[in-house]
Amino acid sequence: MLKDELPKIITNKLPGPKATKVIEDRKKYIPNAIGCIYPVVINRAEGAIVEDIDGNRFLDFIGGVGVLNIGYSHPEIIEAVKEQSEKYFHAMFNTMTHEGYVNLAKELCNIAPIRGKDKKAYFANSGAEADENAVKIAKAYTKRPNIIVFSGAFHGRTHYTMAMTSKKAYAKGMGPLAEGVYRAKFPYYYRAPKDIKEKDYLDYYMDSIYDIFEESVEPSTIAAVVVEPLQGEGGFIPAPIEWVKALRILCDKYGILLIADEVQSGFCRTGKMFCSEYWKEVGAEPDILTTAKSIAAGIPLSAIIASKEIMDSVESGVIGGTFGGNPLACRAALKVIEIMKRDNFTNRSLEIGKIVKDRYKQMQEKYEIIGDIRGLGAMIGIEFVKNKGTKEPAPELTKKIILECANNGLLVEGAGTYNNVIRFLAPLVISNDQLNAGLDIIENAIKVCIKG
After folding, report:
1. Do residues 161 and 170 lie in contact, with contact meaning Cβ atoms separated by under 8 Å?
2. Is 90 exceeded by the pLDDT of residue 35?
3. pLDDT for residue 452
4. Residue 37 pLDDT > 90, yes or no?
5. Is residue 124 a contact partner of residue 321, using CB atoms and an 8 Å limit?
6. Which of these CATH numbers, 3.30.1490.190, 3.90.1150.10, 3.40.50.1240, 3.40.50.970, describes 2-60+344-451?
7. Residues sharing a CB contact under 8 Å with residue 182, sequence separation 6 or more, in sequence order
């Protein structure tokens, strides 16, 4: 079966002849802004393996940028969606109730690690929609106009979430952006200022929030603080737990809601069903949680979960939409959660993460260009630098490594404020043989690119 295969390139060059024609048509008919550097035109995929239309097999360490924790083409999900499709495709929840929506909301309320005894959930279509809706709910509840986000953050490309997202390459030419969005420093300890001692890191990063209160807006005007428990586009940086605890105390002091953006970190990716379960273990759980990506195995769906008190503060008509909670997506999501619980995906995530981190650390000892390795579970970043002493980012080298991997049958993707991080987001159904084959390709790519 395809899901059990290893990567193999059979064409003389990439892309192959059939893929080349499709990519040429892509360039002709699709906007250039929707870029893609990978020489792959997918034909079929199973588990963590993609086969292109020329018969080349690629191992996928990108996983749809966090969408395919359960892998490609899981047979039980195919069957569940097929069964639902034979009943009805669509039922707009604002006009009629369908059981899948209610059952999925109930399931998420039971497992989401948020504050409150009684919880409610509803659905949108993308991570950006979920984040924007979470802010709307926070504003409705607090009656406050402003929010705080962080350096390195990525929250989406809608008008409001472009303002929330840190890297302005994602909003080039789109100004003026939404008002009322203020940015503090995310605790990126590896790149803390050299004159700050490690024992003072926490105070340094918390002070950047208090600077907003001093220089920009009063805390009484802040509705929410929005944070990724493990930054994605920012470079796969986990939020230090001592910082999260301090942030929770700050929010409680000023009546500010804490929103966890788990669009990428949810669904067993970090060794927990949700990364903010680590927060809950220290009494710092969020007030609102957003999630998307791997929720429905690739069918568009996102979720917003909060306490009943917070959710029911929103006026009728302010939230909802045509496709949110689509029946096919809800059916897929229910099956995803069932499989992940049954097959203990949280443990598998931790097992995968240990293999990857151990191998990366071995590489770090051998190669001067590997500056930092970090992450939780199977959400891991490896940061490339010109040398370990200066920590100067190496974005060009990182890009070369990514392309060298692709040419040898492994798909990896970059990240980071300085475009010098390679992210690990392989499907959690990947076998150890496949995992080690992919890590071999990465190490060989590093060797080739160092030589130059």
Report:
1. no
2. no
3. 73
4. no
5. yes
6. 3.90.1150.10
7. 146, 147, 148, 149, 212, 216, 217, 222
